Amino acid sequence: MQKILIVDHERCTGCRLCELVCSVKNAGVSNPSRARIHIIKWEMEGFELPMVCPQCEPAPCMAVCPVDALSRDGDLERVVIDYDLCIGCKLCVAACPFGGMGIDTVAKKVIKCELCDGDPTCVDFCQPQALQYVPAGTVNLRKKREAGLKFSELMRRFAGV
Amino acid sequence: MALNRKIAYIDLSTGEVETAPIPVMMRKLYLGGRGLDIYLLYNHLEPGVDPLGPENVLLVSAGLLAGTLASASARSHLAAKSPLTGFVGSTNMGGFFAPELRWAGFDHLVIKGKAESPVYLWVHDGEIEIEEASHLWGEDTFETQDLIRQEWGDPEVKVVCIGLAGERLVRFANVRTGLKNSGGRTGIGAVMGSKNLKAVAVRGTMDIEIEYPEEALKYNKEIIDKICSTKFAQIMQRWGTMFIYGATNSTGLIRCRNFQLNQLVGGNIECEHIDEYSIGTEGCFGCSIHCRHKYIIKDGPYAGVYAQGPEYTSQGAFGMEVGCNNFETILAGNYLVNKYGLDTLETGSMIAWAMELYEKGILTDKDTEGLKLEWGNDEAVLEMVERIAKRKGLGDILAEGPLRAIERIGEESRPYCIQVKGMSNLHSDERPTPSLALGIATASRGSDHLRSRPAIDLYHLPEALLKKIYGYPTPYDGPLSSDYTTYEGKPRQVQWHEMCYEAVDCLGICKFHTIFLSPNLLGFDEFSKLIYYNTGLEISPQEVWEIADRAYTLERLFNIREGLGREDDWLVDRYFDEPTPLGLEIARNKVLDREKFKQMIDEYYALHGWDEKGVPRPETLKRLGLDKEPSHML
Fold it and tell me: B589 phi and psi, to 5 degrees?
């Protein structure tokens, strides 16, 4: 079954290990500015949110690419970049509503999460499981169950059910 | 490779900035972080200078493995001659500053002189500029960081700064980064204040090259899994260091009411209370233990305040030490010390000492300007924090730290001041535990639990396991005992943990990931492998030990150069004369034995290759390559 990378921000501890391992895996160096994932923090409020390409469908980045360098890989349901075709115009960066399409200033190319070819390194390292790579069809039921748990607690506490 | 970060020499008096590479040879001798800092301090500081004068030298650094795949590779280190003790000033903290400093291209900043007016350093992608900071002077440590981020329009800027306490030269002012991370001990914040240096701000986007990326990823995953599989890590993830209180208080190993009791009877400050206030936990860079809680205070004058922590130390400082039994006082006290930039431990200890003096009539209402410094007076405790930070009244005296405050208050106050080398002790009672007592008596930066504490001694581990841990990576066939109340083999344990903590402070890894509070975490073998995969340097476990030994011995030499003698490695009389009144049988009615304690110190010196006065022997210096220091290679 098709798998997707989901973010549970409530579990995120803001440690940025995902940024570190992403840059080492994809660029061979430690450098979050070259990572495909970032933890966005509101430090004074204590809120942190991992932001990564959600592999949109239809994808705005694909739609604006003038040379069709971006394509959908059906096997992994991801958007991939063909660097042989890419002309570096960065229209995709401008079109992406999430900042999922980035610029690697060292390698001088656009970059995005390509799910580490089906085995996302960030997920592997995320001990609190704020990042999970799960079958798409199970997401709905999982979220319903989690929400239901809260609901049942409230029912028990306030309605005596 | 990860070794190409630079050193910068910054003269605040002249505004000159010079940078230089760090030779690999120096890495092989000192690694980085605390190790290279003590080398730089020993070489750049003239002996005998006023710690709050422009001649003091301030070091700001990142550990060698900070920002790399080394599990919680988050630690930065700051050093200077301590305004609190007059000996080595050294403090270490987590957060996100150290990796950012390295992404900005630097490992060590050597800061000299004094700026004419307030400034901060702006370090970014290989550049260092001295920026005007008059508008930041007087701002608290939270606002300062936020204002600097706004100034550059970049929320990713990381800042180390001082608060009001550092500006007012409180001798135990700390340095702060983020909402909680603090370089608490030895008063480095006052050194920054004395230099008119409000902050060091960093932002970097430069690669730290990892020598063997695939292997480093694989090995890092392996050790994270290992760490997270321990009970210790799982408890820390849930409660942070506050969990320690439950164990130590129930046994009778804490200090309550300064040094009068060793248990908070009827205590109501257990870690579980944090759940009423917590909105989650946060980790330092790359850390899977995420031990600090994010909390919001619900009631009282600080209602609505968002802060992080508290740790075990703040439970002591604003709980048992001052006889307070109110979790919200701990949360408020923790918030206040972080806001003003005060060492939570020293602040709590100074207040507790003043309270005992008040109880004994040595301090009166006249001295306190009517403030009732009575045990458990929550408002008075929090008010004293304000007075210390602002140097008001009695607060101005306490802000001078233990030894100078004794001079101001009078000799009759001395016996009640629980300090070593002029730095206050942690809120733990070491009378039942000779190994822990030896650790605080001999620690190079004054009384301290993060220099050498063999905390796992409290677990009664089987002798076979003790032999395995303490017989490596250098041989040891002396005695070792599972009984923490004995004196047998404890000097080796203290020496071993000294070397372990020195090594991780050089590497920039958090102690909570090493054999500190769990015997199942990282040791010298792992350090060696982490160095190899990340930097390519081949340094054996034995060589890591030798580097730690070299750096620690150089700290000793620094202290001796500043006038330290054997008599400074000693505890106050109460440890030997007043038996513990409370706790389980194993902890009750205990004092330390002077003769046996003296023998432990002899044995500890011998293990280090130091003579009976605690001075490193010529052959020891030769073995460690310290016989020609200062060698001025950097």
Answer: 60, 40
- In angstroms, the separation between the Cα of residue B68 and the nearest Cα of chain A is 6
Comparing CB atoms, the residue among B96, B217, B286 nearest residue A25 is B217
> Kind and range of the H or E element at B79?
strand B76-81
Domain count, chain B: 3
Is residue B365 domain-resident? yes
Distance of CA B615 to the CA centre of its chain: 24
- Residue B287, pLDDT > 70, answer yes
- Map out the domains of chain A with their CATH numbers: 3-159 (3.30.70.20)
From A15, A41, A121, residue closest to B286, measured CB to CB: A15
Alpha helices in B185-276 (DSSP H): 188-194, 213-228, 231-239, 243-251
Q: Which residues contact B418 (CB under 8 A, 6 or more apart)?
A: B255, B258, B259, B349, B353, B424, B425, B572, B574
Domain boundary among B424, B452, B481: B424
Verify whether the Cβ–Cβ distance B283 to A25 is below 8 Å.
Answer: no
Beta-carbon separation of A16 and B285 below 8 A: yes
The conformation of residue B318, written as its DSSP 8-state character, comes to: I
Within 8 A of A21 by CB-CB distance, chain B residues are 69, 217, 220
CA B437 – CA B453 distance, rounded (Å): 9
In the structure encoding, which two tokens stand for residue B553, read together?
């011995």
| Rounded Cα gap, residues B103 and A32, in angstroms | 9
pLDDT-derived band at B581, boundaries 50, 70, 90: very high
pTM of the model: 0.97
User: Is residue B392 domain-shared with residue B518, that is, in the same domain?
Assistant: no
